[in-house]
Amino acid sequence: MDGCRSNSSSASRNSRSRSDAQKMKYVCVTGGVVSGLGKGITISSIGRLLKQSGLRVTSIKIDPYLNTDAGTMSPFEHGEVFVLDDGGEVDLDLGNYERFLSLTLGKDHNITTGKVYNEVILRERRGDYLGKTVQVVPHVTNEIQDWIERVAVLPVDGSQEAPEICLVEVGGTVGDIESSVFLEALRQFQFRVGRENFCLIFVSLVPVLGSVGEQKTKPTQHGVKELRSVGLSPDVIICRSSNRVELSTREKISVFCHCPPSHVLSVHDVSNIYHVPIILAEQNLHGILRDHLKLERIMTPEPDLVRWTELATSVDIFEEQVKIAIVGKYTGLSDSYLSVLKALKHASIAAKRALEICWVEASDLESETQKTEEEKHAAAWKVIEEVDGIVVPGGFGSRGVEGKVLTVEYARRTGRPILGVCLGMQVMVIEHCRNVLGLRTATSQEFAEQGKEQAEGAKEGDREEETYAVVFMPEINPAVMGGTMRLGARPTDVLLRDRQQKPTLAGQLYKQRDEVWERHRHRYEVNPELLGRLEEAGLRFVGKDKTGARMEIVELDREKHPFFLGTQYHPEFQSRPLEPSPPFLGLILAASGQLREYLRANGAN
Ligand code: GLN
Questions:
Q1: Above 90 in pLDDT, residue 436?
Q2: Superfamily of domain 25-314
Q3: Three-state DSSP class for residue 514
Q4: What is the similarity comment for this entry (predicted)?
Q5: What pLDDT sits at residue 379?
Q6: pLDDT at residue 352 greater than cutoff 70
């Protein structure tokens, strides 16, 4: 959507002289009442609206927990760990920002309590505080403000220019003990940067109760009261609700919450998230922010939402469906695979198909283990048999791996389009070793090591000698003691033609680019010792790192299988609504019978 910037916006930008240099403008957003309001989407939409009004936007997410990053947090509890170019393992909301606002953020754009305290303690040890007693106020609160100011100016849209607007989301809900230090920092911050450079938005819930569907304002009133008790007053209140929030409701909120009625906006449920910037524009949020933050000189009079509106409406009208199974181990919680879901969604938009996701718990597919009940087992296989395509996503640990191996075997034998990501690709290699090379005990060193721990005490010789199809190949991180994970963006050399000079699937999907940068998060890799035999058996390694030792992309010849592709990296992290990730696009096109035509149209022979 970057190309959407209107002519009038560039005209206004060109007419701006250097001396016009604006102060950074901050739009801070807090939420009240309950979590899970869709605060991230609301904030991303505010950013998109400002971006379409010609402004350079960045964003910072504050997470009031003590972990220094999201890397060690369970996807069960916290949703997926999002990975950034610089290797930052961060909250999934940063993924929303990157996707919605076409940004490339860094690890410092995610502030946590742990990170801030870590910094303060390091400073104290270095003697930076000159013998003073180090306290939450002012030392921690100053550190938070310094951090925001330092990170806000970092270029994030590929332009090398500092942003003009910084969105700051405070995670959690107002009133939590955890977030109070951040709210205090923001209270001070409004004076540090000046009121005309600071706008506070409160996102709240307006529940609808009773048979007449009364919109209740009390939770919002209490949320704002809580906010005002810490010295912050909202400039704008955004009400999340199932239906459009009526004028009378908004007027009531206005009276009780010390905010003009025109600044109380409705973000009601819509058919897809791309409508949210549009409904905010309809309620003149851009005008409110322009006046409050004195942005008239650098903002276009109206946002250019033409392509965005096309996107939002097109998503609603696809008639033909594409059904994709995600075979994972956290399938009860879709947030655990959020970026995979988004990448599938973006690819389906490009393929003009309505996406239906079928979640399959990998362990339900296992038969030998007797772990699952008959019914669940049968139901899981019925789904696999009925879908148009399959994704085996990334993961850690051995639970469900046998189910994934069976899925890959089924897809390989039946010609069902399948994409394996990270662990998914490793499973593709394990399956080939077992069922094509006949190495029945093939596994990953990761599971074998886990197994050894569990079987501690078992007699020597009880276990069959295993073949490691996937081995531990750490990448030492000198910055982190003990850091062995290969993390962040790395280059992959893509083989464009195979030995017979036929174009490779990966080369075609990446449009003949022979080097691609994608994001990684893993410790294990395909065992280099088995490469020759696997290649001989037809599995092609068509993407490698610069040393040639790490296998990055694996595929089967399209004459053997319509779409069988695995990537050691996670292509989902760089997918964008209008720029789908090539491997995901390939899967959806293959699953909807359009891949051959697409490849032909893109110059493949
Ligand atoms: N557990 C595997 C590894 O560490 C795969 C990781 C992943 O899928 N992200 O290599």
A1: yes
A2: P-loop containing nucleotide triphosphate hydrolases (3.40.50.300)
A3: coil
A4: Belongs to the CTP synthase family.
A5: 93
A6: yes
